[in-house]
Design brief:
Length: 198
Amino acid sequence: MAEYDFEKMQKKLQKYLDEDRFQHTLGVMYTCAALAMAHGYDMKDAQAAGLLHDCAKCIPNKKKLKLCENNCISVTEFEKEHPFLLHAKLGAFIAKEKYGIKNEDILSSIRFHTTGKPEMSLLEKIVYIADYIEPGRYKAQHLDKIRALAFRDLDECMYEILKDTLAYLEEDPKDIDLTTKDAFIYYKDLHMERGVHS
């Protein structure tokens, strides 16, 4: 089992994030731990993923693009037009290189915490959901329902979050990443197959 020096990681991270983002990050870390308890995942790994999920968030967009180019991180045309999305895949790279994270599940959960994807691992779902429901969040619709669902049924929770996210993004369809659409279709199909009535 990996050992993490969370105090040291937090101090380092605090230098690179603004105060609001740092507080959000702590909220996600604690929510990841709570969801890991509820769903039988390693709590420390979940905390590490939550703590580092936004480690590249406050890097200016031009610099994000440059860092991706310099480190051979592939960038899609969509990401070039929406460079804020790059903080996820760049964050996975930084978590590995600067914070010594070797666990591929943690790195993947950082990489997909913004878009989601079909067939997410348990940790990927935990981080994606924790990012959406942490205590500081208040703007999203149906948060009370989604927060309760997160501790009962992660797949159904993914479906509800993706449904709300796409409904919100539909106002400007060109802003929708195809991976998010694919994730929604996957969790919608799962929802239909299971016949869950939430």
